[in-house]
């Protein structure tokens, strides 16, 4: 008997090639999927890094904004403080005029409108200072405190305790808790 050569039918050959082709395509497809998944993971990691960087930048900007806001407030406070320091001699002059008003009015009654105007100006000016947080340092009868008083001289005074303020030459002022000008005082020995 002779062995007949086995020949594949064309349909069988096409089916086998198709199966092999599909297997190759499936391997290519799996490789492509792995590649796409790898790229997707890389993109996700990059997105996380970018999000973290964005959050840091946003926090940095917020800190910068707050710092500038504090600096602006401090500059405003310093400007107000300097302005008030420059106006304190005017307050002193207004106080002196009002203090000596009775003497002026004894000499001339025609000065009454001017004295009243200065008294009103003093009242309004002191109210403005008070509204800004400025207050006068109480000195007379108080113990000498170098934080608020500047002793220009010491005198013997048997009626007062030692280191007690017995006279004020120039009023002192504070803005909140900051001394704008120390009170210039005479202290008992």
Description:
The chain has 189 residues and is of the alpha+beta class. The protein has a domain at 135-189: Head domain of nucleotide exchange factor GrpE (Nucleotide Exchange Factor Grpe, Chain A, domain 2), CATH 2.30.22.10. 62% of the residues lie in helices and 15% in strands. A 3-stranded antiparallel sheet has the order 1-4-5. Strand 4 and strand 5 form a beta hairpin. Helix 1 (10-99) packs antiparallel against helix 3 (112-131). The longest helix is centred in the N-terminal third of the chain and has 90 residues, at 10-99. The termini are far apart. 6% of the residues are buried.
| CATH fold descriptor of the domain at 135-189 | Nucleotide Exchange Factor Grpe, Chain A, domain 2
Instruction: Spell the H/E element sequence.
Output: HHHEEEEEE
CATH superfamily of the domain at 135-189, by name, is Head domain of nucleotide exchange factor GrpE
Mean pLDDT: 88
Q: Total helix count? A: 3
Helix content: 55-70%
Silhouette: rod-shaped
Main CATH class of the domain at 135-189: Mainly Beta
Residue stretches low in confidence (pLDDT < 50, at least 5 long) are none
Rg (CA only): 46 Å
